[in-house]
Amino acid sequence: MAETNLKIHAYDKPGGSRRQGEIDTFTVDFNPNSFAINTKVEYKQPEGKGSAGNDPTFEKIPALEFSLEFTIDGTGVAAENFAPDKRNEYKSKKKDYVKTQVRLLRDVAGIVNLNGEIHRPNYLAVLWGTFFLDCVMTSLNVTYNLFDQEGTPLRAKVNCTFLERLRPGSGGRQSRLESPDLTKHRLVREGDILPLIAKREYDDSGYYIQLAKINKLKNFRNIPAGITLILPPMEQTDE
After folding, report:
1. Of the chain's two ends, which shows fewer C-beta atoms within 10 Å, N or C?
2. Which helix (H) or strand (E) is 210 found in, with range?
3. What's the CA gap between 125 and 101, in Å, rounded?
4. Across the strands, what pairs with 139?
């Protein structure tokens, strides 16, 4: 399946990464038809007897919600995107492909059967293009809209809703949903080393190898102060 296809990673730790805590991954057949972001502002409406109206009191801005709509296809069209080994696997379970993928998505999210190790649904991260978002799934709606003669579903439209979450230690950083381009630039300070920068920016010091490659640095411990580093979104750490 193409590397550019959206992925939903499941973790059993709130600060999980590819190196620690990843349980499973769901990859869509085709990228989403829509990506909607919902921002809410909560106010408290004062109640006064005999009053015609009151000025609402601001309470909080909750975490951002976002929803995805995509298609699971069991007609064979999606198989063209698969690698040879995945294509053979698809052929072996083609009849039940849609049901299997829906079951996998539910297992990855952990919203039908809770994760017994943490006694809650899984922590998730959605990766697509420049988006890498820590989140939890709040709803999953599946509409089957194509069937074979025996009534087996061949295609399903999936709508998932997620609630963005900030990892512990993020210091209330700005939501990653607020910009479609997550590539950042950081000025190197005296005494900075790449593992510390990677830990600060990605919650994982292991990303220093990728940062060194991207910024063409030969010595990750001795970085000249005053240079600007490119900090793109990361999917996984090189081993």
Report:
1. C
2. helix 208-214
3. 18
4. 161
Using a cut of 0.90, tell me whether the model's pTM lies above it: no
pLDDT per residue as tens digits for the range 138-161: 999 999 999 988 899 999 999 999
Structure token pair of residue 78: 């999606």
**Which two three-digit tokens encode residue 96?**
């039940």
End-to-end Cα distance, the chain = 22
Residue 110 per-residue DSSP state: T
CB burial of residue 73 (10 Å; 0-12, 13-18, 19+): buried
Which 8-state DSSP code applies to residue 95?
G
Residue 198 CA to its chain's centroid (Å): 19
Give the C-alpha separation, 54 to 33, whole Å.
42
Give me the count of residues in the chain: 239
- Domains of the chain are 7-178 (2.40.30.200), 184-231 (3.10.350.10)
* Coil/strand/helix, residue 191: coil
Residue type, 190: E
What are the C-alpha distances in Å from 108 to residues 50, 136, 147, 212? 52, 11, 25, 32
Q: Closest Cα partner for 7 from 109, 100, 79, 95?
A: 109
Phi, then psi, of 97 in degrees rounded to 5? -60, -45
